[in-house]
Amino acid sequence: MEKNEVTQHATERSSMSESPSNPPKGRIGAKAKRHCQRFWWLHLIIFIVVLLVITLPLVFVGFPRIAQSNVNDSTLEIQSMIITDPRPQSFHLKQRSLIRSDSSYHPLLDAFNATLSIQDGGTARPPFATVELPAVHPAAETPVDLDQNVQVTDLGQYTNFAKVVLASEEYKLAVKGRTGLHQKGLRAITVGYDKVVTLKGTLPSAKTHNGCGSLALIACHSIVGLNGLKGFNVTSFQILLTASPDGANMIGKVYIPNPSVMTMEMGNVTMTLFVDSLQIGTSTIPDLTLRPGPNTVDMRATTNQSLVLQKLANYKDGILPVDIVGNSSVYNGRHLTYYEEALASNTLRVNLNVGRALGEIGLGGVVGGGGNSTA
User: Fold this and answer.
1) Which of 72, 100, 314, 358 is most open to solvent, judged by the fewest CB atoms within 10 Å of its CB?
2) Residue 215: is its pLDDT beyond 80?
3) Which residue stretches of 58-131 are H helix?
4) What is the rounded average pLDDT of the residues 174-201?
C-alpha cells in the first residue's frame, strides 16, 4: 500500500510540472517561432513604421535645416570685380569670388539667378541687376568666376549703387536667390542664398585686402573701397600760350587712387572747375579706366584765363583752390548717366600752383609769390 502511494505522488508531481502554468522552455520557444512564422508581416509593418517615424523627420525636416544652416554659415569674398563695356542700360561683368565653408558636407549647388542690391541699414533696396551664378560644389575654399553681360533692371537703383561705391568708405551689397542643393544619397532640396557683402575701406594701401571673418547677415568680408577718391590730385600741369585744336589751354597729369578691387571703364570723363564757386573752365580725362591701385592719367583742360588771372589776384602766393565737379561720362558716344550723377555728387578739391606754371612760361610777374605746392 505504501508503495502505491509513493508511485501516485510521483505521478502527480510529474503532472504538475507539465501543467500550462509552467510550460517547459522548449515549448515557449516553439510557440514564439510559430507566432513569428504566422505573423511575420505584422512585425515587418511595425519595424517599417518605427523606422519611418525616426528617419522621415531627419530627411524632410532635419536635413533641409542643416543644409540651409550650412549655406548660411558659408562666407563670400569678392576678390576682383571688372566692369567694362558700360552702356546706358547694361555692362559687362567679370568677377572672381571665393566661397568659404567649414562644413563637413559638400553638396552640389545648382546654377541660379541672383539679384544684386544695395543694403541700406537692415533693409535691402530694390535690385538693380540680376547675375547668373554657376553651379558650385562648395569645399573649404571654392572660386566662383563670372564673365557675362548684365542688364540693368532698375536704372535709379544702379545710379544709387554708383554713388554709394564712389562716395562711401563702407557699403553693403546684397546677393539673393534660391537654388537646388544635392547631397549624395538624399533627395534634392531648395535652399535660399542670402548674402550681404560688406565692402569697406581704410585708404590706402591697395596692396592688402583683409577680411573681417564672416559676412554680416550671413557673411561679412571687408574690402578697401573708393572712399570718395580721397587723395585725388593734379600732380603736374602746364599752361599753353596757344590753345590746342580741341580748345585745351592747359594739360597735365592727374593721380586717382583706387584701393578697391574694382576696375571700371568710364569713357571720356569731363569735369567742371570752380574757384570760389565761380566756374573757370572744364577738364577732360579721355578714355578713363579706373583700375585697382594708383592711377596716373592724362588731363586736358579748357579754362577762362581772364577769370583765372582775376581770381589769382586774391591769392598772392599764386596757389588757387580749385573745386572739381564731374558733369559727364561718355563711352562710345553714349552718356552714362549713372556715372555722371555719381561724379556730380562727389566734389573734389585740389590746390594748383598757377603762379609757378605762369613763371614757367615767362609770366611769373603776374603774381607776387612763387608758391610752393606740388601741382
Assistant:
1) 314
2) no
3) 63-73
4) 71
